[in-house]
Amino acid sequence: MAAFGRALTTLAEQQSSYQRAQTQAMIAVRGTLSDHEQRLATQEGRLDKAAQVMGATIREVRNLKERLDPGATITDEQAAELSTRVKVIAEELTRQTAGTPHQKNYYASLFGELHRRFRVSSYMNLTIEKYEQAMSWLGDYDDALGRATTDPDDPMADTRLDGGY
């Protein structure tokens, strides 16, 4: 019976030692798991940020493709530039013909010719390709009127080549 008691005591000590080792191993595994969870959260955050950047980049590329596609219609900014250019030329034609029998509504005439020449119901429906042609056509009017554009992006920056108005 004494041998049985020693065996039982040895078994209890071994079980206790085994449980301590298991507990230490579990603590180590939990620490490693916690570290991996933190790394995973960091990587997920980076992936979310990369997805946002890619989404914005894709939207920008689509916008650029639409703007650069020769079949795409002009932007609001381009429409405003064209309209302003027509207005400036029409005002100059009206000024030059003031008091003569040739005076008419040049604004309507220019837009009518633009619609006819480029086969659009509205200048807003011009394609990018036709927009460039229309601006060139209006540039020809500027040349014929003795005008030069000092800043191609600002149609209001036109000046007379002959020294002023």
User: Could you say which overall geometry the principal axes of the C-alpha atoms support?
Assistant: rod-shaped
Low-confidence region ranges = 154-165
Q: How many separate structural domains?
A: 2
Share of helix among residues?
A: over 70%
Quaternary structure? single chain
Q: How are the strands of the largest sheet arranged?
A: 1-2
Number of helices: 4
What fraction of residues sit in β-strands? under 5%
Mean pLDDT: 84
Radius of gyration: 40 Å
Give the distance, in angstroms, between the N- and C-terminal Cα atoms.
Answer: 128 Å
Backbone structural class: mainly alpha
What is the element string, with H for helices and E for strands?
Answer: HHHHEE
Tell me how many strands there are: 2
How would you sum up the major sheet?
A: 2 strands, antiparallel
What does this entry show, briefly?
The protein is mainly alpha-helical and about 160 residues long.
Which key phrases capture this entry?
single chain; 165 residues; mainly alpha; 2 domains; two-stranded antiparallel sheet; 4 helices; 2 strands; 72% helix; 4% strand; rod-shaped; disordered C terminus
Describe the overall structure:
- With 165 residues, this protein is mainly alpha-helical.
- The chain has two domains: 1-68; 76-160, no CATH class.
- The protein contains four helices and two strands.
- It has helices spanning 2-68, 76-97, 106-118, 128-144, and strands spanning 147-149, 158-160.
- The chain has a two-stranded antiparallel ribbon.
- Strand 1 and strand 2 form a beta hairpin.
- Helix 2 packs across helix 3 (106-118) and helix 2 packs parallel to helix 4 (128-144).
- The longest helix is centred in the first third of the chain and has 67 residues, at 2-68.
- Residues 154-165 have low confidence and may be disordered.
